[in-house]
Write a structure and sequence with these properties.
nine-stranded mixed sheet; six-stranded mixed sheet
Length: 359
């Protein structure tokens, strides 16, 4: 079988997962080219800053729910069978307040059919189990990833399959064809550049924009439960979530949802509100000793790569180069990563091996 040279642009969770899935298919030589790699902490490189978990987040587009749903079984498999991937199971509680209806924060959450069909044990909490100030809540088993372990694990699996990773900044999508490790032109480019798709030559997608997320990483243990709420009393662009990363990765407290805000510096006032909200919802974090007992590892800011029309997952020819786009995942890159990778790889195979067909 003839081998096809493919370049993947981007080494966030979407780019690495797509490269990994493609590398498992016979007949492809894959090179990953990226400005940022696992181990980097840069505000425009969203993946290290993510929680990351599997939650009922609102999605845009007719296929996005399916891509999320198709991802969950693989995350479950990794949590069960490969502890070195840095994923573990956690009970999750989503809290709803009637006063949040119609706010941006409430719109961030959903209980669409795709999610109800994904997790097997979703149930409504009885009134006796509701936290103070909460009108209703659901509980289910989810997963949480230690991004500091999971991203390098993805790299290791790619390397094991012969993928070559190179650090480089590409100005135009067509330039990537010249960077394949074989020193022969790539036949196709997978564009997984996230937020940078807004500036990548040949793409320059003006519908891509950042949604700033600020978090606090602490050493405290919330007691084996992840929480999020439908809103806060501190503004429409502030969120409340608590998630404990696997394998000693600490607990992420969040957060914010600030559209078109590129500020890379943590806001100390916002950080104080994040910590106060987390301790109020989950006193177990500090064993009832208040905010002062939080043991802070670091403050973080990441820019979620949103796109007005939702995820862009399609083929395009740019300057004679076959391109498959896979970007615009917003705040659900991890939980849609495998579903999107499967779809992207089908498009690659159609482009290089056969006629286009509908997903």
């Amino acid at each position: 079988m003839a081998e096809h040279n493919v370049v993947v642009l981007g080494a966030g969770v979407v780019g690495l997962t797509t490269a990994l899935v493609l590398s498992r298919r016979p007949g492809f030589q894959v090179t990953v080219i990226a400005k940022h790699m696992p181990g980097d902490y840069d505000v425009e490189y969203a993946s290290p800053w993510a929680g990351a978990n599997y939650f009922p987040l609102s999605v845009t587009g007719p296929d996005a729910g399916r891509w999320n749903k198709e991802t969950y079984p693989e995350l479950v498999r990794l949590a069960r069978e490969l502890p070195e991937a840095g994923i573990h199971f956690q009970d999750a509680v989503v809290c709803y307040r009637e006063k949040d209806v119609g706010t941006p924060a409430a719109a961030f959450l959903t209980e669409d059919a795709w999610f109800k069909e994904s997790v097997p044990d979703l149930r409504e909490l009885p009134v006796s189990e509701l936290p103070p100030g909460v009108d209703s809540a659901i509980r289910f088993t989810s997963v949480c990833m230690n991004t500091a372990l999971y991203l390098p694990w993805l790299v290791s699996q790619c390397l094991k399959n012969g993928v070559v990773l190179r650090r480089d900044a590409v100005a135009h999508v067509c330039d990537a064809t010249k960077l394949h490790h074989s020193r022969r032109p790539a036949e196709l480019v997978l564009n997984c550049t996230g937020l940078l798709a807004s500036r990548l030559g040949g793409v320059e997608d003006r519908t891509v924009f950042p949604v700033r997320g600020q978090t606090v990483l602490v050493r405290n243990d919330p007691g084996g439960v992840m929480y999020t709420t439908s809103g806060t009393d501190d503004g429409d662009d502030e969120l409340l979530y608590i998630m404990q990363r696997a394998a000693g990765g600490g607990t992420i407290l969040g957060g914010s949802y600030q559209k078109n805000n590129w500020d890379p510096q943590p806001d100390p006032h916002l950080a104080a509100r994040i910590m106060a909200r987390a301790v109020a919802l989950c006193p177990a974090l500090t064993r009832g000793r208040g905010v002062e007992a939080l043991d802070v590892v670091r403050h973080g800011v990441g820019l979620r790569p949103y796109r007005a029309g939702g995820i862009r997952l399609e083929r395009e020819t740019i300057g004679g180069v076959e391109v498959v786009h896979n970007y615009g995942h917003g705040g659900y890159g991890y939980q849609s990563s495998y579903g999107c990778a499967y779809a992207a790889v089908r498009l690659v195979e159609e482009a290089l091996r056969g006629p286009r067909s509908k997903l």
